[in-house]
Amino acid sequence: SGMTTASLPALGSAQMPTGSVLQVTSSGYDSSSATVVAQNANATLITKTLTVQANSKLLVWFNSHQTNNSGTDVNPDVDIRIDDSIFVGSSNHFFYGVDSRAVIVLFGMTGALTAGSHTIKVNGSTYGNGSTSYNYQNSNGGRLIVQEIAG
Prior knowledge:
By secondary structure, this protein is an all-beta fold. The protein has strands at residues 21-27, 35-37, 41-52, 57-63, 67-69, 74-82, 85-88, 101-102, 105-109, 116-128, 132-134, 143-149.
């Protein structure tokens, strides 16, 4: 008939093509209460641990929802860390000169990772004269979304 057939690999041994999404997770803030970060201090806002395949990359997206400062000379500074190394840097100066609320959005993709467990953290800090409230108005919907991409 001119058709060729190929055997499929045994269940569990198939390798997904490069660029395939292998898993997707979504997490909210580690606390249902606001996290108030004092001047020149920092706090872990979200922690997520994933087990990945060798050479996978992680596509990471963070949306703070409402974040609020105690005054006009206060700046939040958010970063995303993989295994305690910053890979998406500072989001500072959102509030400089403003006494209001804002939404902070960060995203990025890691390089190829080793197989095994990796921890993703969103870290919030504050510099200037005052404090920053992350998860302002408690349980307001801040999210961390992580996709494992096959390498």
